[in-house]
Amino acid sequence: MFSYMRMEFGLEIAPEIEYFYTYFDVNDDVLQTLLYSNFKDITLFYNEEFVEYVVERWINLHGIDENTNQNIEDAFSIGRFEFNFKNNAFNKHIQEVDFLQICFEELGSDAHLCFSIGSHITGDCGGNIYLILNGDSSGCITTDFGYENFSENALNFYYSNLEEENTWHCLDQYKDYIEKIAKDA
């Protein structure tokens, strides 16, 4: 399963997660859900550096008018669900998303710099839960509750970011089980 993820998607699962799911008999649907979805249900959590770069580029190209705030916020809102993990690119079919792709390419298509990529695991009316697939938080679970406010140059909008307080390691749920196995060994 992990070699398939590496070969097909270039995804490196944290070693402790790979070890845990390989050697412990745990009936868990997290990795099965990821494989079944083929990483198509992706959500982005933008990094501040990317947001600042996009805003600067937008202002340089279009200036600021009464629609700028809404246009930029729409680009981030739409774009967060329009990223193709396998191709490391935004799906090109919407003007605002095309602009995000241009900015992403100008930053070297570096997903670690621009955003955290979350793959949807589960959700209900209380929110969604994602496994982070890249960066320092790779292998962590997060929710989609966090939003950051951007306020500069007469602009004031919100974008989705990764909040530390809503992020935890995916093996935390097995802490008691792991400790019991370690004591018995």
List keywords for this structure.
single chain, 185 residues, alpha+beta, 5-stranded antiparallel beta sheet, two-stranded antiparallel ribbon, 8 helices, 9 strands
Report helical residue fraction: 40-55%
Percent of sequence in beta strands: 15-25%
Biggest sheet overview: 5 strands, antiparallel
Number of helices: 8
| Distance between the amino and carboxyl termini | 26 Å
Global shape: elongated
- Helix and strand succession? HHHEHHEEHHEEEEEEH
Strand order of the biggest β-sheet: 1-4-5-6-9
Number of strands: 9
Radius of gyration: 18 Å
Mean pLDDT: 78
Low-confidence stretches: none
Structural class: alpha+beta
Fold and architecture overview:
This protein is of the alpha+beta class and about 180 residues long. It contains 8 helices and 9 strands. The strands form 3 sheets. The protein has a 5-stranded antiparallel beta sheet with strand order 1-4-5-6-9. A two-stranded antiparallel sheet has the order 2-3.
Summarize it.
The chain is α+β, with helices and mostly antiparallel strands.
Ordered list of secondary-structure elements with their pairings:
Blueprint: H1 2-9, H2 15-23, H3 30-37, E1 42-46, H4 48-62, H5 68-79, E2 83-84, E3 89-90, H6 95-106, H7 111-114, E4 115-124, E5 127-132, E6 140-143, E7 147-152, E8 155-160, E9 167-169, H8 175-184
Antiparallel strand pairs: 1-4, 2-3, 4-5, 5-6, 6-9, 7-8
